[in-house]
Amino acid sequence: MLIDFAQSRVFEYLPKVILPACLATLAMLVISLLLSTIVGVSIAVMLTLSHPKGLAPNRYLYRIFNTLIDAIRSFPAIILIVLFTPLTRWLIGTSVGWIAAVVPLTIVAFPAVARLIENALLEVDKNVILAARSFGASNRQIITKVMFSEAAPAIVSSMTFASIQLLANTALAGAVGAGGLGAVALTYGYQRFDDLMTYAVVFILSVIVLVIQYIGRITYRLFK
Question: What's in the keyword line of the UniProt record (predicted)?
Answer without folding.
Answer: Cell inner membrane, Cell membrane, Membrane, Transmembrane, Transmembrane helix, Transport
